[in-house]
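testing teh design pipeline on a random one, pls ignore if ur not involved
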């Protein structure tokens, strides 16, 4: 992104979304995997001098004599092309300039479609309270807060291309002390990650938290992060529902070099997409209600670079990396001695759909060869599931005296 477009983006963001303009100043990080990927043993990793002429200067694979200066008869041309097709298994066609074109699909690399196994990590904080007897004359709780929380992380794909998310939600009810009133709190956060050519980065993060207390804090905040930097925030009071945020930009670039046929091709993958956050709820001395829907999406577009002279090269296709939203609801209601709580979260996820192929074309005097390597090929996957759906009502706090069976004395006993 050049400076002029960056300034324009800053101005646009500040006009559309107050407080979000700082996001436009975030530079797009660039990462490089220095290891060259050798796709086939017969095409060894090689470094050519800059500007090296490969067109009409690279020998074919058949046993026919090769010379860029020889004039080959039509019969010799047909024999050479037929031999090349038999050796390579290529498909013969005619290119746009009228030359014969032999298209060769190289073996698909395992990283293009194979999942690396990442176990799903999930924690559901259990309710840990001692049972209360109905025969108790005074029901109280200790000073230990009641906490209910949920955490889940999932990753998919592999080190070439992949993505993942984290959902973290919790609520806490803290009993009163001699110096402070009881307190209710709720929190929700969602993160989205992206991986390209061995580089894994947090793309977006949405976070909201609220806190209510008699005579204390009755407020909260909602924040949005991009590549680890906060780009937007707002304060939350009473009943709140700020305008939803939806914003797009490029995240980062990563590059890796592949041997496509005899040519080292540096593929630059650009991850771009968006961040979104919707928040609503209520805060008060006895209620903390929070509904948050963080999410993000990212697509991969790629370009190619080489340092030699050949007929043509490039990238074909595009890849949808991830599109995820994680609606989460947390509620604590604690007016007197009964605490009502709800915690639920759902997952709406689409990931890894599309393909990316790198290709090169080299002139061989009277015909061309095209090599193609598939570096990503995913059929697309979808998940729409309920992660958590729990609610309960329990006694928590100082409650009135409970008398199970009162004793009525009919005949008083007179002691001497």
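output:
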């Amino acid at each position: 992104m050049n400076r002029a477009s960056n300034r324009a983006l800053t101005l646009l963001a500040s006009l559309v979304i107050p407080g979000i303009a700082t996001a436009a100043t975030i530079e797009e990080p660039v990462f490089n995997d220095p290891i060259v990927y050798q796709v086939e043993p017969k095409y060894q990793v090689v470094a050519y001098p800059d500007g090296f002429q490969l067109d009409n200067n690279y020998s074919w694979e058949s046993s026919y004599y090769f010379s860029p200066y020889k004039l080959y008869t039509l019969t010799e041309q047909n024999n050479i092309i037929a031999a090349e097709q038999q050796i390579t298994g290529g498909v013969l066609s005619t290119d746009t300039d009228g030359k014969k074109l032999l298209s060769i699909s190289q073996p698909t690399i395992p990283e293009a479609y194979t999942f690396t196994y990442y176990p799903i990590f999930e924690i559901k904080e259990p309710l840990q309270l001692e049972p209360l007897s109905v025969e108790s004359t005074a029901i109280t709780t200790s000073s230990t807060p009641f906490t209910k929380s949920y955490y889940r992380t999932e990753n998919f794909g592999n080190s070439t291309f992949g993505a993942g998310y984290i959902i973290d939600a919790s609520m806490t009810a803290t009993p009163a002390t001699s110096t402070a009133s009881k307190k209710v709190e709720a929190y929700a956060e969602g993160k989205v990650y992206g991986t390209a050519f061995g580089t894994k980065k947090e793309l977006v993060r949405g976070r909201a938290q609220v806190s209510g207390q008699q005579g204390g804090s009755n407020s909260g905040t909602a924040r949005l992060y991009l590549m680890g930097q906060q780009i937007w925030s707002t304060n939350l009071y009473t009943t709140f529902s700020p305008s939803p945020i939806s914003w797009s930009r490029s995240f980062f670039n990563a590059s890796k070099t592949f041997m496509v046929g005899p040519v080292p091709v540096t593929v630059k993958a650009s991850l771009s997409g968006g961040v979104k956050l919707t928040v609503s709820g209520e805060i008060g001395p006895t209620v903390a209600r929070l509904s948050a829907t963080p999410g993000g999406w990212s697509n991969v577009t790629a370009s190619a670079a080489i340092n030699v002279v050949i007929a043509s090269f490039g990238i074909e296709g595009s890849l949808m990396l991830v599109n995820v939203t994680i609606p989460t609801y947390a509620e604590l209601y604690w007016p007197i001695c009964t605490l009502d709580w709800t915690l639920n979260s759902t997952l709406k996820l689409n990931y890894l759909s599309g393909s990316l192929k790198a290709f090169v074309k080299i002139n061989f005097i009277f015909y061309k060869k095209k090599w193609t390597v598939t570096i990503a090929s995913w059929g697309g996957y979808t998940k729409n599931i309920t992660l958590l759906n729990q609610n309960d009502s329990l006694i928590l706090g100082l409650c009135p005296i409970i008398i199970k069976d009162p004793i009525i004395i009919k005949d008083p006993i007179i002691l001497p």
